[in-house]
Amino acid sequence: MKRVGVFLCWCGSNIAATVDVGKVAERVRLLPGVVHVEENKYTCSEPGQASIIKAIKEHGLERVVVAACSPRLHEPTFRRTLETAGLNPYFLEMANVREHCSWVHPDREKATDKAFDLVRMAVARVLKNEPLARGSITIEKRALVLGGGIAGIQAALDIADAGHEVILVEREPTIGGRMAQLDKTFPTLDCSSCILTPKMVDAAKHPKITLYTYSELEKVEGYIGNFHVTVRKRARSVDETLCTGCGLCQTKCPTKVPSEFDVGTGLRKAIYTPFPQAVPNKPVIDRENCTYYKTGKCRVCERVCEAKAIRFDQEDVLVEERVGAIVVATGFDLFDCSVYGEYGYGLYPDVIDALQFERLINASGPTEGKIKRPSDHEIPRSVAFVLCVGSRDEQKGVSYCSRACCMYSVKHATQYMDKVKDGRAYVFYMDIRTPGKAYEEFYKRSSVEYGVQFIRGRPSKIYQKGDKLIVKAEDTLLGRPVEAEVEMVVLAPAMVPKRDAARTAQTLGVSYDGFGFLNEAHPKLRPVETNTAGIYLAGVCQGPKDIPDTVAQASAAGAKVAALFSRDEMATEPMIARVDEALCSGCLWCKPVCPYKAIEARTVTEKVHGRTVSREVASVNAGLCQGCGACTVACRDGAMNLQGFTNEQVITAVDELLAGLRPACS
Amino acid sequence: MPNNPTLDKNMTETETALRREAARLLSQGEVAVFLGHEEGWDGVPVPFAASTAAEAGRLVWNPLSAPHLAKYLLDRLEGDEKVGIVVNGCGSLALDRILKDRRFPRERLHVVGIPCSGMLDPARVAALSDEERERVLKDGPVDPGLFLDRCSWCDVPNPVVSDTLLSEPLPVVRHRPEYPRVAELEAMDREERAEYLRGLYERCIRCFACRNVCPACNCRECCLDQWEPLWLGRATSPAEQQMFHFIRAFDVAGRCIRCGECERVCSVGLPLMELNDKFLKDITELFGVERPHIPADVEPLGCFEPGDPDLEDHG
Amino acid sequence: MAESAATPAESRPPGTAGTAVEKPPAGEETREWEPVIVGFLCNWCSYAGADSAGTARMVHPTNVRIVRVPCSGRVNPRFVLRAFQRGADGVLISGCHPGDCHYSTGNFYARRRLLLLKGYLEYLGIDPRRFRTHWVSASEGQKWAEVVRSMCEEVKALGPAPSLGNLV
Ligand SMILES: Cc1cc2nc3c(=O)[nH]c(=O)nc-3n(C[C@H](O)[C@H](O)[C@H](O)COP(=O)(O)OP(=O)(O)OC[C@H]3O[C@@H](n4cnc5c(N)ncnc54)[C@H](O)[C@@H]3O)c2cc1C
Ligand code: SF4
Ligand code: SF4
Ligand code: FES
């Protein structure tokens, strides 16, 4: 039997005043395996630890039990002590005789009895402890950022500035995301592209950043520090290395289609860059609409291109990259307002959504910043802004609040009143939410200085009457129905996950919620990590937020990546799951319960009766396993065990506690 | 809703077809061995592995072909030769259990399926007088109680896994599983029930026949046989037997196919399905799994719903 | 500091809790019977919650002996039956509130297993008051103390758990 030393701490009088430590010592001395018992005034102090080290050496201790405070406090301390003394740090057990005993049980006799039981359990358990060693995995110091909105751009810049290579993958022909579509940003009303475009250019020019636009993430394999990703670079039909970005092709192209960037409020060509400041400023041919691809005739762009950059036969290219970390910043889509048939979106041309309004009011938008309503290009004399279209509506939309709509609608109303001085702006709202620096003040100003009128109530119907629109609602503050006659209506749609968010999540192996927003590892304490180690979240793909929050989260994700990359290797915790391959049946029922996708099948070959046979067993990835132990219970054979909390250890503790309680059990 | 089991009138033809198909598979080298039944010493079919076309002539298919064969695949894990196997409806559930537990590769199987409208319980038939037995085996029983228990509620007459079917699929009438024996026990007073169960544990002789026959008990090394940790003490005592049957029932909870083979083979005739059925019943009631005995890709304990019933006690 | 050489361990001292009813350990006077309750607590919430009960000096009965596990998802129902079999008068499992598990989903799996277990223990004839499950967060020291107090009272009123017989 291994030689156990037990150290009973007085913790000054914290323990000793209640627990009769001397009596515990007397009883502990008789326990099997115990060769040394010692009381210390403060075991965690320098002299306390020194005395453990001395005893380990003098008495040849092989296992150590410290009965003191909570292991949540000092387990790391005493592990280090053991290590200093040359013992495996995991040959330690602690008995919590302070928080769980002396501090809560004033009855000296009972507290002493309980303290002894706790030590007894620890002694029995420590005899089952196995030597454990930290492992390590190498870290590939390159990151992949998926999505080139403000979140992706910020994360990429931060990681690159920390000196690490970044691959930025964006599905659209340009980076920039939603922010590029915005006109001004609340609460300061500074121009969105003025603050975004320089960042886009920085990202493109950064020597450490490789940009893949018009590209899709195809496949992700591997784990933290060692991901293998495959990116599909879709055929632009333009040789990027030759194209000078002169834009001649776009002016000459005869085919016009509604512009996605302008949300249908304007037109673009079949060969196009979404907007003039696009990065990279190289066009793509939209093969679905291009006359040449449709009819085999045209090729106007090819003829006008002086750089000879048009490549009708270009094909998609698959690029493989190795990265150590991934930041997901895939952003959001907007709720489809036509779900609310009663609002007439899609039916009445002058009922538009907030993003279309951003384009209308934007100086580089289709109306060059003049607010002209779509039906007759007249300046509307009155506008109703309707909040929570889809948000906070479990019946028709989503249950959550989209967080930015109150503020941007206040922004829109203000902008409108600023441009149409004699206009009238109504905001129909359920609640106005302004949690943010200078937000409430911005909201106040809109009504006090600009005369925006706020009506508390969700419209029940919007309909056309002549060239006017009637908005009917119940003013819930006044408790009476209201009707507003306006010339344009702007709906604020809920922010919803990207249509293909679930598929993206599955490709990455991260979890997502019932809506499709990606899940953070912990709602409070680990807001930018996912449950898959090495994959981080930034921006609205995790949940609705505005630009300041998006950027903060992106920088946080960048910092997490930089911290991970600050070392060449990552230590792995030894208290993780381990498979006994001899026992493992290969059923893999353990696999679905692992929150970190740490379990995979592995083929082992072995000799059976002289024949070489192979079979599948479970294998635990030390880089991913966090040691929760859920898999151990799913495993019927007991092949899956949790180091540090093995089946043997738990059972031993239970058995030891209860041994001797009943005469028949002996 | 109970099922009305009947005996298939064409079993002799099916048997001939089975022999022919097995012989073909074996002679054409499509399978190296074919798992079926042959006639045992007392006339009751016993599992049999035919490895030549000639041996296939010994295969039988009759109203007493009750034993499931899937578990015998585990003896053939090593090697890569193909194995033929015959299954009826419930036999295919046992096979699917082995497959869903990834204990045998589907690619190595050739499954011959036989739609089945009922099988007799060999023990019950054995208890009949000679003439009565002859009549029953020939013309079918008058007493539905002679069928296997599982036939009385079975709604899987057609194999769920098969490569060839030997006869036309039968019409399927789905019904919600019912657990009258569990309900009866639940209605008892707790002490009374404890006493009753104690009586059962007391009689268990730990022959492990239940585990050995169970298609869901398919681990490489059963935890009940392990020494470290000693999940199960080696002494025979009601307490250990309780542990034994608890571990077994919990380990097959969510994977049990409700074939009742454990109960059928129990050396001392313990009503073991009273333990398994409790889990099946609760799985339906707590997690809304309608037919928990059908092997699924996701087992009820391998998933969860955020809205699962509350667990917290109050007080 | 007191220090002493070891005595060879030929005799195991008797367990001290829960001992009195059937055979008081030699040399100890018979005391009022006290139940023994085995507690399986997850490290991140409930164990920490019990620690906060300690830090706040919230007095509660001594009967619960805690076995620390990383997560409620680590609790194998076999452990629970084992405890009852070896003579525990009660078993108490506590983890993070659903949705708050340190490993995000551990207690959801635990909840399914323990729901089944709960029904089953009762089916086996074990009084449901002897097996309790709670969600106690790291800040809920008060709740922990309450849970212990109420469970101890209940189990004490029930008396010693009936035994199924000899174990070797
Ligand atoms: C009408 C409106 C007005 C707003 N006004 C303001 C304001 O004034 N102030 C403010 O602070 N906030 C405002 N917001 C909020 C702001 O738009 C968001 O906070 C911000 O855009 C979020 O940035 P993001 O990078 O997370 O997402 P996005 O901007 O959506 O960027 C995501 C990027 O990822 C790309 N992508 C998506 N999926 C993939 C994939 N699978 N592979 C590769 N790339 C992918 C997308 O193409 C996109 O470029 C407004 C929002 C709306 C709708
Ligand atoms: S570890 Fe256990 S649960 Fe996992 S595959 Fe092996 S036997 Fe199955
Ligand atoms: S211990 Fe938890 S994290 Fe580790 S493999 Fe098992 S289930 Fe996954
Ligand atoms: S960590 Fe507390 S329940 Fe999972």
Secondary structure layout:
The complex is a heterotrimer of chains A (666), B (315) and C (168).
Chain A: E1 4-9, H1 21-28, E2 34-40, H2 46-59, E3 63-68, H3 71-84, E4 92-96, H4 98-102, H5 108-126, E5 135-138, E6 142-146, H6 150-161, E7 165-169, E8 184-185, E9 190-191, H7 192-205, E10 209-212, E11 215-223, E12 226-233, H8 248-252, E13 256-258, E14 267-269, E15 271-272, E16 284-285, H9 291-295, H10 300-304, E17 317-323, E18 325-328, E19 332-334, E20 351-353, H11 354-360, E21 382-389, H12 405-419, E22 424-429, H13 439-448, E23 453-456, E24 461-465, E25 468-475, E26 480-486, E27 488-493, E28 495-497, H14 501-508, E29 535-537, H15 547-564, E30 569-572, E31 577-579, E32 599-608, E33 611-620, H16 630-634, E34 640-642, H17 647-658
Parallel strand pairs in A: 1-2, 1-3, 3-4, 6-7, 6-18, 7-10, 18-29, 20-27, 21-22, 21-27, 22-23
Antiparallel strand pairs in A: 5-30, 8-9, 11-12, 12-17, 13-14, 15-16, 19-28, 24-25, 25-26, 31-34, 32-33
Chain B: H1 11-27, E1 33-39, E2 45-50, H2 53-56, E3 59-60, E4 83-87, H3 89-100, E5 109-113, H4 122-126, H5 130-139, E6 164-165, H6 180-187, H7 190-203, H8 209-213, H9 238-252, H10 261-265, H11 273-287
Parallel strand pairs in B: 1-4, 4-5, 5-6
Antiparallel strand pairs in B: 1-2, 1-3
Chain C: E1 3-5, E2 37-42, H1 46-55, E3 64-69, H2 77-85, E4 90-95, H3 106-124, E5 131-135, H4 141-158
Parallel strand pairs in C: 2-3, 2-4, 4-5
The structure holds flavin-adenine dinucleotide (FAD), iron/sulfur cluster (SF4) (2 copies) and FE2/S2 (inorganic) cluster.
Q: Can you put this structure into words, describing what you see?
A:
The complex is a heterotrimer of chains A (666), B (315) and C (168). Helix content of chain A is 26%, strand content 26%. Chain A is of the alpha/beta class and 666 residues long. The longest helix of chain A has 19 residues, at 108-126. The model of chain A is unreliable at 662-666 (pLDDT under 50). Chain B has two domains: 11-165, no CATH class; 180-287. The longest helix of chain B has 17 residues, at 11-27. In chain B, 44% of the residues are buried. Chain C has helices at residues 46-55, 77-85, 106-124, 141-158, and strands spanning 3-5, 37-42, 64-69, 90-95, 131-135. In chain C, helix 1 (46-55) packs across helix 4. Chain C starts with a strand and ends in a 10-residue tail after the last helix. Chains in contact: A-B, A-C, B-C. The interface between A and C is large, with 75 and 70 residues. Bound molecules: flavin-adenine dinucleotide (FAD), iron/sulfur cluster (2 copies) and FE2/S2 (inorganic) cluster (FES).
